Amino acid sequence: MITKTSTKLVIAATASVIATTAIAEGELNLYSSRHYDTDERLYSDFTELTGITINRIEGNADELIARMEAEGANSPADVLLTVDTSRLERAKDAGVLQSIDSEVLEARIPVSLQDADNQWFGFSQRARIIFYDKTDVTNPPMDYVALADPAYEGQVCHRSSTNVYSQTLLSAVIENHGAEAAKGWAEGVVNNFARDPQGGDTDQLRGLVSGECDIAISNTYYFARALRKDVDGLSADALANIGWVFPAQNAEGAHMNLSGGGVAANAPNRDNAIAFLEYLASDQAQQYFSAGNDEYPAVPGVGLSESVATLGLFRPDAVDLTKVAKNVPEAQTIFNEVGWE
Length: 341
Prior knowledge:
Blueprint: H1 4-24, E1 27-32, H2 39-50, E2 53-58, H3 61-71, E3 79-83, H4 85-93, H5 103-108, E4 121-133, E5 156-157, H6 164-177, H7 179-191, H8 201-210, E6 215-219, H9 220-228, H10 236-240, E7 242-245, E8 255-263, H11 270-280, H12 283-293, E9 296-297, H13 306-309, H14 321-326, H15 328-338
Parallel strand pairs: 1-2, 1-3, 5-6
Antiparallel strand pairs: 3-8, 4-6, 4-7, 4-8, 4-9
Helix pairs in contact: 1-11, 6-7, 6-15, 7-15
């Protein structure tokens, strides 16, 4: 068993290794589909700590993975960062990541949030939960299954079936309840739509404010962000009328979306790449994921920002995220069959 003290020693030792590597190598080529301005602090702090310069290429996850495939052995990529387990698995299946050994990552990142072959690791999480208009809904759905209840006909807002968050949620329903039940669920949710799927998660929350819908599904960090700072269409008065439910607390638990990364298969600066991933698992970086982007840290015991803590404690779904990722093609087939646009 690794104690808190021994973990700190491992991290301290790693910091020394990072500093030595920085002198020898000096740079890191990062391919990232994370599009948050707050991540700038992560990069600048890592450079300040190590002296390693980060060169970034940012874009859509699928485009970055395709680019790494096309570049092959000549790819300059050292690290791929992306959002959602399905994309991390897609990168692994495409052969653009490599397995690594890291005592720091093994000690810090829970087994459930890392690839079995150590090709990717999760560094932050978002719970996908149910929000509702407290002025109209007195008996909100308490789990995902209930979203298909005819009692909520014409009340539900959700994103399109092409969105990765929609895909992995249905994929988790498949894993937890079986494909047949998942199809019935998806069909029931479509019947309960208040409008055709449209927009991002913030738009689902705005739908509650505008009165277009009474119930919406969104990742927690969009709501927590609005608690922390001004977001167009989500004033403090509007937020006061929105309630939330962490679903399935007496069943599988709340579905989680993972943001993570791995070392590129042909990383020219492999040691620096590992050092960067280890830095992302440090208390400093983990706290910034929460304070800067309103996410849940992947490392247990790291304090939450006020905006995230306001949402309260909950039990997450412990489903195998690798299996969830592999269900995505079946989920898309179900979406097509039930007319979820």
